[in-house]
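fyi for ur records
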Amino acid sequence: MAKKSKSVFVCQECGYESPTWMGQCICGAWNSFVEEKALPAPKEDSRRRTSESAKPTKLKEVGTRDYQRLNTGIGELNRVLGGGLVKGSLVLISGEPGIGKSTIIIQAASNIAQTGQKVLYVSGEESEEQIKLRADRVCEDIPDTLLVMPETNMENVEIACENIKPAFLIIDSIQTMYSDEIDSAPGSVSQVRACGNKLLKIGKTNNIPTFIVAHVTKSGDLAGPKTVEHLVDCVLNFSGERDQELRILRSFKNRFGTTSEIGAFMMAESGLEEVRDISGTFLEGKEEESEGSVTAAVYEGSRPVMFEVQALVTPANIGFARRTAVGADNTRLSMILAVLEKKIGLNLVNQDVYVNVVGGLKPDGTSIDLAVALAIYSSLKSISAPKKTIAMGEIGLTGDLRNVRFAEKIVKEAARMGYERAIIPINNAKTIKENFSGIEIIGVKNIREAIKCFTK
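which gave:
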């Protein structure tokens, strides 16, 4: 007699499983539990090892190997991936609707198929005709080896992979896929987890690199359980403003490359075009000697990126003063304002402060603190930098400036772009051995010294 399957209650927010229904989950969500069938474990589990194979190996004796990479034909995408697609890897790409996820994927699929390798594009959101219309727009020539499959059942996708044996697999999107082994609806926590595990098995067993498109929530986070992010090898995020053409592809996790790399693209009629000079794009249109405008820089992955930080300080009319930051951290902005009030003596209590990183970039780290502080001071005092100046450094609560990473490479890039001065922490200035022609390196200890040098 067959054993009846039991039921469990799964939280749709975090994936927590409970034998009984709960009003509030441990993650804090209310009424988020749904009943799902718990399947019994198979009697024959291929993951179990025999007594002979279940032996540990000396780490010293484990050999290393070079991972074979697949060229996507898109330089910026290869850069973010760490040099190309690693065979057998799973890449999760997310972004807001209409940002360009499907566009860059169909371009990469076409480029790989041009080399004669089979590419399988599985779409649960679009029909074959819709995919063909996009391919006609962004691809110069559609090769015969680019195969499309409108399907939402994971078992059918698994069979298709066994028959076709593609060199590249695309799933668009994982929230539309479902497995017959789970009773819940597509997009639920259990379905996303189960489909993710099946894709992991397909990719690792057949050595197929897989692109998985994922939806995002209102807050911009990846929808679904966090376990999917843990099981994939690479997590990419596509961001950008809808009213702007620039798109930024950022790596948040990469087992085969750096996790701080970014790629820049420009949305055009023929699809996404690569942006080689990302600093020049961000600084395009920047007015010289304008109030409240300072050039900042960060080191993203393997290259320096320069951009404009703007600030506007205006008297508050009603109630409390507003502090608004776009592209910068609001918490860091509040701290910088407190340091300026305490150490410099600026009166910002009755002033609205707005800070914006031009171009839609959201730089990581704290190296833009100095540029934000100087932009605020510039707007409040109605002054501007007399020369082409770049500023970078982390501001501490004492007002002192702390070092930034790869300062020498950033200063070299600034000199290449024609900047005349670089205001950096004094310890960074001491370590820069090479004298770059045409740029003056100014090392400062604290925010007070930085403001004095900025206003000269």
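The radius of gyration is 26 Å. thats all i got for now
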